[in-house]
Q: What sequence folds into this?
């Protein structure tokens, strides 16, 4: 694969990149000619220990000695724009070669899984597991995708042109790219974010999921119409429902997004039924399909909802199916069955929305409810829970003084109407961020019971706690065990099929406890919550807030889910994806199909093949526990350094994340002045370290922990663990990827800074130590030596954006040295961010 990658991607990029020089734009030739010289100057300069300021100054002294500061800054902005377009070109070339650099029938694919199970006489066990299994990918509105929609469209067309080596079309698309702006003029609304992601539902997931299901069932000789687990593959959806720290998501937005989802899936059905009609032109069938087409048209465009539920549509389709079998020997039955399968999978909801809010907001709402009743919520947690559970009604919304509390109640109030309009699947979960106690979960349970559950025998809503910090993860099993034994909540779970979904926050867990401790704490919490759930007859489902980059729990998902072992409940895989991870891994039908299959295969293999490399023994667990504990202590010490928060606030581009117009959410959760670590969102936190090419959340403490165990004579045990445990290999592999994306020479000038010099040295020492120790543990000569294709991709991408990294650090260095932030320097930092993040694809 490495040679294929070199030919299909690396060499193609060199060839097509030269086309930029022929673009008919002002100064393009000068920019394109000078940019490689700057790139070389950056590489050589950092090797010689020069600062970004010295590199940029030397470049202008040599090539433009008479230039004014204005001319210099103009050229730097032109170079930023040029590099941004190089990144787009490289993305398109890599995407065009996707099928050639990935084995679409190899490990982790449906074909490989079925072949393996057939060889091992496990086909029946596979079919049985498929009847209840599910993979749910939840698309979030987290703002890490910098490309506006028109640029994404160009990328798609460019990829198609590159596939056929159509030089003329490639050239014209590069010209279009040169004239198309890359920045969004206005901050998107939550509704805008939803529209952007619905594009992926309509154009990618609708086809990809159906294709996987059709091939899977066909390979197992299961008729499509007999299949009764349409939720085997599904898509979750956070835009419009995720309120955590986003005051712009209102109940009105939620209703609009739900309506949009329904309308767009009906549009897909309308287009499909027209295609089906082209084949089924027979008596007793065609007239039914004509009526279906008319009914969908009336529902969509004439404000005449002929079809109000998916059951009505399925009823008519099954009538057509009956006629096709009875009168026409089932001719083209497969065409109709595939359409029926789509309706079963996507219903009238298209994707499953979640509502999410921070527990502290619910605390405030509950307190005002008691105030309005002339009472005060007080006493121990058990006493407060008793007070909350004794509530029999909610005050009128107009009586609340806090408009935010009014809005929260209105949000809960729209769930019923949304379910009535699009089916219960559209929104049947409420996620509680920062959940720290039984009280936090029961607040939401009772509030919704008095809202959505009012006048109903049972409440059609799952309450989902999200445990994030290290302490919360440790408390989570006891919290859940207590809830399972609470009569009122137990009765609710019985109605919901004795199934409890629990979300785990990799992002905030890593931010709180460092990389190793967060991942190990989550695995242990999963194992303990699996145990207490099984003891209470509850099927627990884990929903992983993994994000995209390794520092936020991302990385190789197949290895992660294939490594969990039998101590972790395996009924479903649920995971969040966001930003560039959506467009990079699920942005094309081929990549979406491949990555969806990888997840499905990982979950099924974990159930069917419980091997020695998945179940950690007592000694291995003790070793990881010791390693994670040492890493945690190292990270805690670093996090408590007096320069930690000031460095984030005043050195990194953290504050500029709020100026990028890429997402609707504010930079932090709190409203107060100044930066508080606990209020800081994981995305700008991780993203800021990524911009500095320091990637602290992805590795800090790993090297220090290995060193401590090595001094205890346990290096051999760690090496043996790495060889024998898939979980441990996947864990360290993600850290290696974070380290590979680091470039500390760009910020080495900070060594001389009187405020931050010592702090930088601490980071750099741990960076060097982590590289050395990971190479020792893995017995590799270089990081990612076992994954040279990804390593090569990272190297090329980092080389492309090295001028941007240098320019950004040049501006930061100027500000730190002069104490002055000019508009030009601020713009240089801000504009450099776009290319740096887009090149990394999963950096924040």
A:
């Amino acid at each position: 694969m490495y040679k294929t990658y070199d030919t299909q991607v690396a060499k193609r990029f060199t060839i097509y990149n030269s086309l930029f020089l022929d673009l008919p734009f002002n100064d393009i030739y000068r920019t394109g000619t000078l940019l490689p010289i700057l790139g070389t100057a950056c590489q050589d300069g950092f090797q010689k220990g020069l600062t970004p300021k010295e590199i940029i100054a030397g470049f202008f002294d040599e090539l433009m000695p008479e230039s004014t500061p204005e001319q210099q800054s103009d050229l730097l902005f032109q170079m930023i724009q040029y590099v941004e377009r190089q990144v787009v070109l490289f993305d398109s070339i890599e995407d065009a070669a996707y099928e050639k650099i990935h084995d679409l029938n190899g490990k982790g694919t449906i074909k490989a899984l079925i072949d393996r199970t057939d060889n091992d006489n496990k086909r029946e066990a596979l079919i049985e597991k498929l009847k209840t299994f599910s993979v749910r990918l939840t698309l979030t509105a987290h703002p890490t995708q910098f490309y506006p929609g028109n640029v994404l469209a160009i990328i798609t067309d460019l990829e198609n042109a590159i596939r056929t080596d159509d030089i003329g079309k490639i050239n014209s698309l590069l010209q279009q790219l040169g004239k198309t702006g890359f920045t969004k003029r206005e901050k998107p609304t939550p509704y805008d974010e939803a529209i952007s992601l619905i594009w992926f539902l309509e154009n990618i997931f609708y086809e990809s999921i159906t294709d996987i299901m059709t091939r899977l069932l066909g390979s197992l000789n299961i008729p499509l119409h007999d299949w009764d687990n349409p939720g085997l593959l599904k898509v979750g959806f956070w835009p419009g429902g995720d309120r955590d720290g986003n005051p712009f998501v209102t109940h009105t937005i939620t209703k609009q997004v739900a309506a949009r989802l329904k309308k767009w899936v009906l549009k897909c059905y309308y287009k499909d039924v027209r295609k089906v009609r082209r084949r089924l032109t027979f008596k007793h069938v065609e007239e039914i399909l004509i009526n279906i087409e008319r009914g969908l048209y009336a529902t969509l465009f004439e404000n005449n909802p002929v079809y109000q539920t998916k059951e009505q549509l399925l009823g008519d389709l099954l009538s057509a199916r009956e006629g096709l079998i009875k009168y026409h020997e089932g001719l083209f039955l497969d065409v109709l069955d595939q359409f029926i399968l789509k309706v079963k999978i996507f219903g009238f909801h298209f994707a499953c929305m979640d509502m999410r809010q921070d527990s502290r907001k619910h605390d405030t709402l509950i307190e005002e409810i008691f105030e309005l009743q002339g009472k005060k919520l007080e006493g121990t947690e058990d006493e407060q829970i008793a007070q909350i559970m004794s509530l029999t009604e909610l005050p009128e919304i107009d009586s609340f003084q806090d408009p935010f509390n009014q809005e929260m109640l209105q949000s809960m109030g729209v769930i019923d109407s949304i379910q009535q309009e699009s089916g219960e699947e559209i929104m049947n979960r409420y996620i509680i961020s920062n959940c720290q106690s039984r009280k936090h979960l029961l607040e939401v349970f009772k509030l919704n019971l008095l809202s959505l559950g009012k006048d109903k025998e049972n409440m059609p809503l799952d309450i989902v706690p999200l445990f994030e910090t290290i302490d919360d993860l440790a408390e989570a099993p006891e919290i859940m065990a207590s809830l399972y034994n609470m009569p009122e909540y137990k009765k609710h779970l019985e109605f919901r099929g004795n199934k409890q979904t629990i979300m785990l926050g990799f992002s905030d867990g890593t931010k709180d406890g460092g990389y190793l401790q967060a991942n190990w704490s989550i695995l242990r919490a999963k194992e303990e919550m699996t145990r207490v759930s099984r003891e209470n007859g509850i099927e627990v489902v884990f929903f992983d807030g993994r994000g995209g980059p390794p520092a936020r729990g991302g990385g190789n998902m197949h290895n992660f889910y294939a490594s969990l072992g039998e101590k972790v409940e395996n009924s479903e895989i649920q995971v969040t994806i966001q930003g560039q991870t959506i467009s990079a891994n699920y942005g094309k039908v081929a990549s979406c199909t491949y990555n969806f299959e990888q997840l499905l295969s990982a979950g099924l293999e974990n159930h069917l093949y419980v091997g020695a490399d998945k179940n950690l023994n007592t000694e291995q667990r003790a070793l990881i526990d010791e390693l994670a504990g040492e890493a945690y202590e190292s990270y805690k010490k670093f996090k408590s350094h007096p320069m930690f928060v000031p460095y984030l606030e005043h050195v990194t581009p953290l504050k500029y994340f709020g100026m990028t117009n890429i997402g609707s959410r504010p930079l932090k959760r709190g409203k107060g002045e100044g930066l508080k670590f606990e209020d800081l969102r994981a995305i700008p936190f991780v993203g800021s370290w990524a911009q500095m090419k320091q990637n602290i959340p992805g590795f800090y403490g790993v090297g220090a922990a290995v060193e401590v165990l090595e001094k205890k004579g346990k290096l051999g045990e760690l090496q043996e663990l790495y060889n024998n445990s898939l979980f441990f290999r996947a864990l360290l592999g993600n850290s290696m990827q974070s380290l590979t994306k680091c470039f500390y020479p760009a910020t080495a000038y900070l060594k001389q800074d009187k405020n931050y010099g010592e702090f930088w040295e601490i980071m750099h020492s741990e960076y060097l130590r982590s590289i050395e120790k990971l190479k020792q543990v893995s017995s590799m000569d270089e990081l990612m030596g076992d994954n040279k294709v990804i390593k090569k991709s990272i190297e090329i991408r980092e080389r492309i954006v090295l001028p941007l990294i240098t320019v950004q650090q040049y501006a930061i260095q100027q500000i730190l040295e002069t104490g002055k932030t000019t508009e030009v320097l601020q713009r240089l930092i801000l504009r450099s961010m776009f290319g740096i993040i887009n090149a990394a694809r999963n950096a924040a």
Q: What stands out?
A: The chain has 34 helices and eight strands.
